[in-house]
Amino acid sequence: MAEKTLAIIGAGISGLSAGCYGRMNGYRTVILEMHGLPGGLCTAWTRNGYTFDGCIHWLTSSAPGDSLYGVWEELGAVQGRPVVDHDVFWRVVGADGRTFSLYADPDRLLQHMRELSPQDAAPAAELCRWIRKFRRFSMAMDKPRELMSGPDVLKLVVRMGGKLKDLRILSSTSMGEFSKRFKDPLLAAGMRLAVGESTPLIGLVMTLAPMSRRAAGFPVGGSLAFAQAIERRYKGLGGEIRYGAKVVQILESDGNAVGVRLADGSEVRADYVVSAADLRHTLTSLLDGRRQDETHRALLETGDLYPSCVQVSFGVRRAFHELDECLGEAFELETPLRLGGEDVEWMTVRSYALDPSLAPSGCSVVTSILDAKWEYWSALRADRAAYTAEKERVAAACAEAIDRRYPGFRDAIEATDVATPVTFERYTGSWKGTFMTWRLTPEFEKRYGYVRKAVPGLDNLYVASMWTLPPGGIPGAAQAGRQVIQLLCARDQKRFVATKPRL
Ligand SMILES: Cc1cc2nc3c(=O)[nH]c(=O)nc-3n(C[C@H](O)[C@H](O)[C@H](O)COP(=O)(O)OP(=O)(O)OC[C@H]3O[C@@H](n4cnc5c(N)ncnc54)[C@H](O)[C@@H]3O)c2cc1C
Prior knowledge:
This protein is of the alpha+beta class. It folds into three domains: 5-45 and 63-81 and 220-304 and 437-491, FAD/NAD(P)-binding domain, CATH 3.50.50; 100-213, no CATH class; 308-431, no CATH class. 36% of the residues lie in helices and 24% in strands. It has helices spanning 13-24, 69-74, 106-116, 121-133, 150-159, 164-171, 175-179, 185-195, 201-212, 222-236, 279-286, 294-302, 374-380, 384-405, 421-428, 444-448, 473-491; strands spanning 5-9, 28-33, 44-47, 50-53, 59-60, 83-84, 88-93, 99-103, 216-219, 240-243, 247-253, 256-262, 267-269, 272-275, 308-316, 326-339, 342-351, 364-372, 413-419, 454-455, 458-463. A seven-stranded mixed β-sheet has the order 8-7-16-17-18-15-19, sandwiched between helices. A six-stranded mixed β-sheet has the order 10-2-1-14-21-20. Helix 1 packs parallel to helix 10 (222-236), helix 1 runs parallel beside helix 17 (473-491) and helix 3 runs antiparallel to helix 4 (121-133). The protein is globular. Residues 9-15, 32-35, 40-42, 54-58, 246-247, 276-278, 281, 309, 311, 424, 428-430, 435-436, 465-466, 472-475, 477 line the site of flavin-adenine dinucleotide.
C-alpha cells in the first residue's frame, strides 16, 4: 500500500519529532520550515566565532534510564553527547555579598539553608521534603490524552502514587507566596528568583527533583546541535525537509485539510497536515480563526501566558569559570536599573565555559536574561533607531553590572548580541515571543481541560507544537510530535512503532 503523505509545518523540536515518528510509522513526510535552520526556539546563533545559545538551560531526562530518555534516544538527540550537570541550580548573591546556593541535592541544600538562616529551618525543611518526595516522580505520559482509556487513566492515577493531593498543594502556592515564609531576605529572594515569582512551587520542585538525580543537565554542543542531531535522524529515516518554505494557508476541501499553500504561491498536497507552528498562528492565520474548540479559544483569550525575555549574550576573551558550579547566578544591584521598560534589581549571569565547543579556545560565552514584555519591545521596534539604542543601552548596562561583580569582564568582551521578545517572535513566529506556553495553575485542568490536537470541523489536520502540552519546553514539544503520530496510527489502525537508531 502506498505511504500516506504528511505535510508538517515547522521544524522546531515538535515538527522534527512528528517527522521522525511519522517516518518510523511509514508516512511519507515533508517538513516545511520558514527559517533556514532546524530547531525553532531551540536554537543558537554565531557572532565573531562565538556560539550564543538561545534555549536549553537544562534538558529534562538527560540521564540514561530517566522517564523521557528513551524519547531522546529515539530522536537520536543524546547518543554520544556529553551532558554537564551542575551541583547548584541558582546562586543568589545579595548586595551585602552573602551567597545562597540552591543546591540540587536536598540534604546539602537543607544544611546550607539552616546555616544561612536557622530561623528559616521550617520552610527550608518543607522545600527539601518536597524535593525528596518528588525525586523519582515523572509526569511523562506514554500516550496522548485522546487515546487514554478508563484503565489507562486508572493506571496513571496509580502511578501518581497518591501524589495528586501533593500536586494540588504544590500547584496552589506561588513562589512569591512561598518566599514570604522565609525571614531571611536572601533566602526569600532566592525563592522569588529561582523560577519566577508567579510560578507555582511545583515548578521549583520539579526542576530541583530531576537535578538532584542528575537528570536535568546541559547537553554539550547546545541547543542548535541538539536540534541538528534530530534533523539528521529525520533525514536518516528518509524524511524530506524544505527551508525557506513559509506556509501561509492550510488548504481545505469538504471539511478536510488537503495540504498547504506556501508564500511563493506553490502548494503541497498531503493526506494529513500537522501544524507544529505556534497554535495561535495556526488557528488565526493559517486557518480562518473560526474553528477552535472551547479549550483553544479559552486559552488564547484568558490563558496566563509565560512572559518573554531579553537575552544579552557576550563573547569574552577569557575562560570564565567563576560560575562553573551553578547553572546561573542572580546578584543584587546596589542601584536598580530601568532596562527595556522593566525595573531590574537583580542581574542574572550565566557562563557556558564548561562547553568549549561554543567559543574559541580560552574564551567563553556569558549571557544575561532579563524578564521582558513583548508589548514594550514591539512598540519600540516601530522606531528602529530607538529600538537599536535601547538594545545597546541594555547590553552596556549588563556588561557594566557584570564587570562590577567580575572585574575585567567588560574589557574582555569581543562580541555582543541582544535578542528581544520581538527577535524570538520574528524568527519562530512564537506568540508574543514567548518561549513557554501557559502557566499551569491549580485551576488549569478544571478550567480548560487538556489541549486537543485536532481542530473541530476540519478533518485530517493536527496541531503538535509545545502549545498542546503546557507549560511547554523541549520535552513537551518532543512529546507533542510523538503523540500526533500515535493519533494518526490509531486512526489508520496501525500499531505505533518507535525505534532507536542503530549506532
Ligand atoms: C531563551 C529560551 C530558553 C529556554 N530554555 C529551555 C530549557 O532550558 N529547557 C526546555 O526544555 N525548554 C526551554 N525553552 C523552550 C523550548 O525552546 C520550547 O518550548 C520548544 O523549543 C518549542 O518547540 P516547538 O517545536 O513546539 O515550537 P517552535 O520552536 O516555536 O517551532 C515552531 C517552528 O515552526 C516554524 N514556523 C512557524 N510558522 C511557520 C509557517 N507559517 N511556515 C513555516 N514554518 C513556520 C518556526 O520557524 C519554528 O521553527 C527555552 C526557550 C528559549 C527561547
